[in-house]
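Archive transcription. Copying these from loose printouts into the bound notebook so they stop getting lost. Printout 1 of 2:
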Amino acid sequence: MAETFQPIAPRPSPVRTTGAGPWLRANLFADWRSSATTVFLLVLGLILLPKLFDWGLFSAVFSANADACQAVRGSGACWGVVTEKYRIILFGRYPFEEQWRPLVATGLMVGGLVVSCIRIFWKPWLGLMWVAILAIFFTLMSGGVLGMEEVRTDVWGGLPLTVMLATLSIFLAFPLSIAVALGRRSDLPAIRSACIVYIELIRGVPLISVLFMASFMFPLFMPQNVSIDVLVRVVVGITLFAAAYMAEIVRGGLQAIPKGQLEAAATLGLSYWQTQFKIVLPQALAMVVPSMMNNFISIFKDTSLVTIVSLYELTGALALALNSDVNWRPFKIEAYLFITFVYFTFCFSMSRYSLWVEKQLNASKAR
């Protein structure tokens, strides 16, 4: 009589590998060094966190009352400085009655960035959407049409200026960096030398020097009666600076592509540009996503340097708000914590999006 195969019923693992206990054991108490560090941080947190919460929440003043803030000075935070000065911090010297315009313009640009990061919206119309967003943004910020008061670019400031400078610089620097990276690997000596000189020259000076040259030195070389807006010069300066660093990141990805793939493309009869756009660049850019996002975050934070050319972005607008009022000047720590939170929100969002992109790329490789 034939025997029937009877599978053995699954048995639980002798050591539990899921749940809170295994996670704590693997991440916080893996060995004696990890355990000691965890215990030290817990003790430090138990000592400092109650004081921090008491200073930041329970004993803090949230109303715009300078006398109440002076009464709790040293024992509680004064978030009233944010309540009193938030419009200057967020919009700088922009006319008070017209600040709805930068608010709408910034919301529109941030919304466009969010839409651009969602995969289902990666359609051909996305480029047209950004043309419309930029047109509306500059129309709202500049005014002079549809009954809106005209506002000069040197009066723009705060968060709208920070978001606009970072967004435009990233959008313009990305294709430029790819072109420069390809040029540096070119077989044509003139193109390769020009790209090397550009990269090494830009990377050899700090961004503050580039902004200074773009804003104060460049106009000296222009013909008389010809003037380029300072905002345009700043955008060009940040773009050139960011593209030089990003070009080296892209070049690292290009060098990681096996030479055999290029030979296979040549065997198939693909042209240089077909090889680059269909084989090389998709793989190279996927390899350097973390480094590129790190550069994007650096660009966003480096916009704070435009204060040197009298453009008061987020940090510059904060200094403008506090230096003009002696009553609120002692509470600059709370104000700086506020803009730190704003910067952290944007940078952390960019970092998490980078992790999502990496996860998507890893899933495609697993297939």
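Printout 2 of 2:
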Amino acid sequence: MIQKKTILTYSSAKGQKISLRGKRTSTGYISLYLDYYLGTEKSTDAQGKIVSKTKRHFDFLKIYLMEQPLTKDQRARNKELLELAHQIRNREETNLKTTYFGFPDPSRRRMNFIDYYREHLKNYTNKDIRLVKCSFDHFVNYVNKEVIIPPEIDENFIKGFKNYLEEKLNGDTPYNYFTKFKQLCKQATRDGLFPEDPAVNVSVSRSNGLKKEILTFDEIKRLSTTQCGNDEIKAAFLFCLNTGLRFVDVKSLLWQNIDLPSNLLRKEQTKVRHSSTAAYVYIDLNSNARAILENRKKGLRGDFIFKLPSIESSLRTLKRWTQKAGIVKNITWHSSRHSFATNLLYSNTDIVTVSRLLGHSDLKHTQKYTHLVDELKKRAVNSLPDLY
């Protein structure tokens, strides 16, 4: 007499971590359960030998098949229950590979990457959110369709996006936007959208020089005597021209950051506070910066010195103001920082001092201004009138 197997296997395929099995009971039913294979673990026995042990887990589904269905309805019921058990097994297989073994969830590779990007932007809380938004807007323009799934975003696609940014934008902007996109791809890989980071081998070169416009001493003086549509913006921009502060730092500048008796400004740089060894800047206030502060109503230590609108609104006002002053340059808020550094170097201030005033952690960040100073001095020499 042939003895029946106690354990039956209903699913078995190469690469599966979970098998659907059944155990015969004494009552004529088969109890279905999931057999989880969780790999092996090695240990050392008492004799010092390495022993491998299979790690398994069993989960009984409380689904019972009739071992010998007699009627059509009983067979149909068995089939229905077995299909349900297979669905549970498939779902658990996906969950196990995603959570326990770190395999990507197949469903994530079919999601709309634009929606993923938009959700990332929605939840982004860092101060450089404007860069992320601009990067997103350019990505959407480049894709030029409403839906793109992760398998479409390979290395060639990303090289095309890089070329698009370099053709459309100038200066460090392509580098800044593409850096934010690369950070997103890295996170998307961790989230299971890509099996491997498709952007890891693609990069945008950072500009060695400065393509942003700077303001000369005469142009700064002209701005100071030209009416601006917003006095807060005018005072803050002139203050940045004399201190080298970024917009995000002057917007968050508090009275407690100022020591007027000592003519000193002490401020933690928002942009690099978590990544730089020189996060704090110490700036000696010149007569211009001090006069701007003295002309303002001093508040409490925790009060803002300048009441500034958003960067977008401030830039619009700045553009109208510079045009009104007769300055035919594409001046941005960051031009004040570039102008501060360049004019100091032009006046023969040593590069180490300028680097400290800007809060740079490395001189290489400051050296890019020296190329511009050399160019300005060359222009000045060549502007001398011809004698013959």
